[in-house]
């Protein structure tokens, strides 16, 4: 696994940034950077299952490892979803199993420092290096626009 780190300072409260990250409507807006039509099926509660999906029924099956509202969300990937079916046995599923995404929000003078640390596989390293900064800019835009 490769650990990638991204961060951005947003002129909004941690509560506002948290809402933008995990509210269904705004989640769909900022994750479109990764794949048009992306969405998540979950209640975002600690221990809950998450299906990260695109409109074609492909994506990831994960679980909420940690949820400290307005401070930290950790997601652990368990497998992949192919054609709407959860798969934990394929080569791709095994490559992703155990990888985490960690979102940390810290109150700073300028507003909120949002840090994302993500474990990924080599095949996706350059994709995430290109798309995460764009996704964080979208979160910033959404949070600051709705002040």
Automatic annotation (TrEMBL):
Domain Activator of Hsp90 ATPase homologue 1/2-like C-terminal positions: 11-143
Q: Extract the InterPro entries matched here.
A: ASHA1/2-like_C, START-like_dom_sf
Do you know which SUPFAM superfamilies this protein is assigned to? Bet v1-like (SSF55961)
What CDD domains does its record include?
SRPBCC_CalC_Aha1-like
Top-level taxon of origin: Bacteria
- One Pfam annotation reads AHSA1
The record's comment on protein family reads: Belongs to the AHA1 family.
Q: What is this protein called?
A: SRPBCC domain-containing protein
């Amino acid at each position: 696994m490769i650990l990638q780190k991204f961060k951005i300072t947003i002129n909004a409260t941690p509560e506002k940034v948290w809402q933008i990250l995990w509210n269904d409507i705004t989640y769909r807006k900022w994750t479109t950077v990764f794949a048009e039509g992306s969405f998540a099926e979950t209640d975002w509660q600690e221990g809950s299952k998450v299906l990260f999906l695109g409109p074609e029924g492909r994506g990831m099956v994960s679980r909420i490892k940690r949820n400290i509202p307005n401070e930290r969300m950790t997601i652990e990937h368990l497998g992949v979803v192919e054609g709407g079916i959860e798969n934990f046995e394929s080569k791709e599923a095994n490559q992703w199993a155990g990888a985490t995404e960690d979102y940390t929000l810290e109150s700073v003078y300028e507003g909120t420092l949002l840090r994302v640390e993500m474990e990924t596989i080599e095949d996706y390293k350059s994709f995430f290096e290109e798309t995460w900064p764009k996704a964080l800019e979208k979160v910033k835009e959404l949070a600051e626009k709705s002040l």
